[in-house]
């Protein structure tokens, strides 16, 4: 074999391997699609594996994956995040679950009402779908009259004296305050939780823990700018100067 041919056969595999490593490093390890449990995490969502990793998309769409449990969490919904139950890329909807709200309500030793409205825990990128119903929690100075409780469908919770839950129609975010005002119950401690009608169709405030566990839908609008292989965002042609 001629020396030139031998040299080419020896170095070619090494050169190809080095090129592949370089491409991976340039892209920051970004993948077009990744699995987290049974979920397929694809653009615009992306999974971060370590704090030193380069971003593979807008931060609002960052997902952390617990590899031991297969649970994906939407990181932009505060540090605690919402666990993702399902993603519909065609409809641009996510079914998510506020695990910390559920834990507060379901605790056998330290049950407490939620203190933050759900819409306050999401970035503006996402919108709570109006297909959700509104589960309202009240912390009152005294119990409303029995007739009013029956009329409004108020259910007393086990998370403290004079704490109640009720279903208040379709979720409307900040606009729900006036519609769900209840005399004797502080507006500062009135908290709204979106929820989907359960599969059996029986949405009753007495099932408030189960309803929170069932999750709710959020949507996202226009897709963010795409990411190049270098991990940098590219502007659409219509936005370039």
Relevant terms:
alpha+beta, 241 residues, polysaccharide binding, signal, Wall-associated receptor kinase galacturonan-binding domain-containing protein, 4-stranded antiparallel sheet, 7-stranded mixed sheet, elongated, WAK_GUB, disordered C terminus
Q: Helix amount, in percent? A: 10-25%
Name the assembly state: single chain
Strand order of the largest sheet: 3-4-5-6-7-13-8
Shape: elongated
Structural Rg: 25 Å
Query: In what range is the share of β-strand residues?
Result: 25-35%
Order of helices and strands: HEEEEEEEHEEHEEHEHE
Main sheet: strands, sense, barrel: 7 strands, mixed
Membrane topology: Single-pass membrane protein
Subcellular location: Membrane
InterPro entries: WAK_GUB
GO molecular function: polysaccharide binding
If you had to describe this structure to a student in words, what would you say it looks like?
One of its GO terms (molecular function) is polysaccharide binding. There is one protein chain. Helix content is 20%, strand content 25%. The protein has a 7-stranded mixed beta sheet with strand order 3-4-5-6-7-13-8, with no helix packed on it. β5 and β6 form a beta hairpin. It has a domain at 76-220. Mean pLDDT is 79; it is low at 5-27 and 227-241. By secondary structure, it is α+β, with helices and mostly antiparallel strands. The protein has helices spanning 3-26, 99-106, 146-152, 176-179, 208-213, and strands at residues 33-36, 39-42, 46-47, 62-66, 71-74, 82-88, 93-97, 126-128, 133-139, 155-156, 163-170, 191-195, 216-220.
